[in-house]
Amino acid sequence: MPRHCQDEVPAAPTRLCESCFHTRPLAEFRRRQRGSEHRVRQCRQCHNEFERYRRAAVRSRLSKRHIARDLARVRAASSSNRLKALCEEIVRGYGGTHGFAKAWITSMHDDLQRGGFAALRHLEATMRLIQHCERDRPDYSQMSDEQLEAMLTSPR
How many domains does the chain divide into? Predict the structure, then answer.
C-alpha cells in the first residue's frame, strides 16, 4: 500500500440537518432505534430545542385545563368552609399564592381575549369569591373599640 494512503485518516461521515441546514458529523444525529444504524434527520441540538418547545406547549395546555377545573370547583362549592378548604388546596397545588395568581392571570388574559364561556368562567369564580368574602366579613359597626383593637393585634 502506498505510504500517502496510510497517513490519511478517513473523514468522519456527515449529514445535513433538515432543520438548521448545517452539515454535522453523523454522531450529532440520534439513532432511530437502539442498536440501529439509521439516524433521524434532525441534529441533536435542533431536536432538543424542538422538544423543549413541545414540552412547554403541553405544560401550558395542562395548566389551562387545571385552572378551568379549579374555577369550576370554586363556583360549585356548596359552603363557605368547603370554599375555604378548596382555595387552600388550590393554592398549595400551584406552589403558593404567587404561583396560583400567575397561572390564573395568564389563563384569564388568554380567555378574555378569546371571549365566550371561558371568560365567563373567570368572572363567575371571581364573583363567588367576593360573595364568600362579603358573607364572612364581620360587621365592624357593631364591634366595640376593644374588639377592633384585638382584631388588629391578633395574628391570623
Answer: 1
**75, 121 contact by CB (below 8 A):** yes
Alpha-carbon distance of 70 to 86, in angstroms, equals 9
Q: Which among 111, 119, 121 is positioned nearest to 76, based on CA atoms? A: 121
The stretch 140-148 carries a mean pLDDT of: 81
- Mean pLDDT confidence for 142-147: 83
pLDDT in tens, 44-89: 998 898 888 888 777 666 677 787 888 788 888 888 788 888 888 8
Does residue 90 contact residue 69 with C-beta atoms inside 8 Å?
A: no
Q: Provide the residue range defining the domain that includes 121.
A: 57-137
Gyration radius from the chain CA atoms: 30
Length of the chain counted residue by residue:
156
Flag whether 97 is in a domain: yes
78 within a domain of the structure (yes/no): yes
- 89 in any annotated domain: yes
Query: pTM here?
Result: 0.44
CA distance 88 to 70: 12
- The answer to whether residue 14 is domain-embedded is no
